[in-house]
Queue: 3 jobs
Job 1
Amino acid sequence: MRALSRDALAVAAQPFGILADGAQVDLYTLRRGGGVEVGILTYGGIVQSLLVPDRTGRVANVVLGFPELSDYVAAGSLYLGAIVGRYANRISGGRFSLDERTHQLARNEGRNHLHGGHLGFDKKVWRARTRQSDTEVGVVVRHSSPDGDEGYPGALEIEVAYSLTRDDVLRVAYRAVATRPTIVSLTNHSLFNLAGEGVGDVLAHLLEIDADAYTPVDSDLIPTGELAQVRETPFDFRRPATIGSRIHVGDPQLVIAGGYDHNFVLNERGGLLQPAARLTDRASGRSLEVRTTEPGLQIYTGNRLDGTRTGTSGRPYERFAGVALETQRFPDSPNQSHFPSSVLRPGMTYRSATELHFGLV
């Protein structure tokens, strides 16, 4: 690929692989000369790579991912870098009621529904088009989910726009419309390691979250319905703390999940795009600020990674190899009336926006 002059923006596409059914998957690369470079797959809308310079100018890929399409297919439920939906996170019993009708969804995690079911959006080939302006470059991916898909009512048209700006911001804008009343919560399931993917664990990363409360879970990782205060608990990241500083303290919630796998109740934002969290790797100097319009943020510390999968670096991904910062509606919101609504009706438009601001400290 031709070298870019500093601050110049470019987008390019190339084949990435062929699925067993013959469908072609492409890789779209968004680049800023001298800055961030992002690779997006049409399979699952996956963020396959995210190259970011450190304080010395050395570039590293800071998201977990795989070098080959076959690796993503084989990995199945890891969801690395993917768009997940129609409903991100868990729904108890895979069942919800809407307008006095009960809907049974696919149960793909024991008795519960997770990240859209057996064949969620992470396993679909999305249509794509590029766009470019003087200030940003991007790729827009689209998918059509039919009525009854994984048990969800109504056909859904989804559009996700990835945009890279001149100031090293990756914007992710979600949009969806439905033909029948349904539920929607979309997010991206990237796991970050700001030291570089495959470079050890993220336990020394500093994490700060703008949340006074979180939603405790039961043994199935389903929210109990409580909005618990983080004060004097291992979930208090209102001031920066390393991820590993309290992860092994024996707190029952951390024992259940094997680490952090919890939804944080972001402080009131009124649907506006506002800072939600900051992640920092002091060794490399890389920092990531997450801004979102969403009310919730799922922190997942790669608890289920076990070293059996090898990433783009050629090194295996062990437990805690990355941390996900998933902006979302709350897990199990359809069954918890006091949680933010995830209902989408005909004539309405689902909109959600998240920005990843990369910088140095």
Note: The first helix runs from residue 69 to 75.
Job 2
Amino acid sequence: MDERWVEKVHPLERMAEAEDPFELMAEPVVGDPGVMLDCMLEEFAWMGWNASQLESLFHHPGYPVLGALREYFGDEEVRRRITSLLARTGVLSFREVIAEPELEDDEPEVFQISLPCHN
């Protein structure tokens, strides 16, 4: 093995050390910030986040990449992209209806969940 590289060991199979706190660390990479912004917005919109919730993420200290994208594009452009995305896709939402068993001894049935498609 080349001495520049350290052997890969699964995290569950190695001891925790003070120098390796098992934290994810972001590293800058080359890429298109517009694509990154759109992808991040789509991901949260698919999880059901509405416009005000999406916008609040860009001011939350727990999301430094979104904060950096807001600084790069500005508040107006971020709002414009949120509005544009949600106008095209809407916000994913669910409504649940739980049917109680007819008799006490009956177990609830397994039922299929489906989403209406809007073209």
Note: The two ends are 56 Å apart (CA to CA).
Job 3
Amino acid sequence: MARNTAITKTAKPVFTVTDQEIFARLRQEVRRLVTDLEPKRKYTILFKAWFFPSLYILIYLFALVFGSNLKIFFACYILLGLQLVFVFLNIIHDAVHGTIFKSKKANQIYVHLFDLMGANSFIWQLRHVRYHHNYPNVNGWDTDIEQSKLFRVFPDATFSPVHKYQHIYLPLLYPFYLLNWLLVRDFKDFFKKKGIVKKLVHIPRVEYLQLFFFKSVFLFYMIVLPVLVLSITWMQALLAFFIMLFTASIFSLSVLLPPHANIESEFPVPGKNNQLPHSWMMHMMLTTNDIKGNNFFTRFFMGCFNFHVVHHLFPNVNHIYYPELTQKLMQFAEEYHLPYRRFSLLTSLKNHYRLLKQNGIRENFFEETM
């Protein structure tokens, strides 16, 4: 089903027009690399498209068959939490960017896997593609970063006294990230009249029906069906469900937080006439960083999440090509003095913590100038 949306009149941030020649050269090199690698890599893309959803189903069926043993049941739900992240990184994320199949319809069908796994694919596509990818780290536009008023990640965001303690309480709330996303945030984005998602989009009525339908399906097969099939209690089923979401939350945040929400990244503020200070290419590089590491686990299971800069520069390219594209980007960065950055995962997480602490302090300009 086509997802038509009506665009409302809202002034969008505008990038400066520079660096076009450099990016044109880089894009040409990227196109050549992908063309050379595609004959072999395309089979891996298709294999992943079937492997990860199939493994998710097999783990769930194993839980239904052998889950009367609570150790097996809880272990399966922990694996489902990990597998949810793997499916997202390797299938859903690429499908929403249209990079698995040549058919736009086939990619859209795969995006609906997200609905079956608890999230709402319609609202997430808006948040991720239309907002986050166009305006990463821009306050009021990057919906992947803007999560809650409890979280002051943008230095120019409204300050609240509670933010002084965000470096303490937010890490304690992170295990509830997906629970909030699946059961609270999706509904807020649908029904909050002045929400950020509705800046540009009118949500069709059919999407409201699909929101409730797929949420019900997800809760039914994750909680209700195991109680009906196995000799377990409602409390045990709920506990397993929460454990699954906690596992997925911690694992997914190790992917989502390091590339953008850290003290080393810029948070550009639009100036006069909504003009951003950098070109599109420079904006992506100054607001995004890579994570060190290149091994089978990060490439195959984690969807090359650590090669994040090239993903923002070339979102219409499948993640399977990112290691080679990043090598090319690093060559260009050295030649043209581009601000390419990468850190270890531990350093990136520390930089995220430093950002929370720094933004928990309201600058007093009067004190500084007196």
Note: The first helix runs from residue 20 to 66.
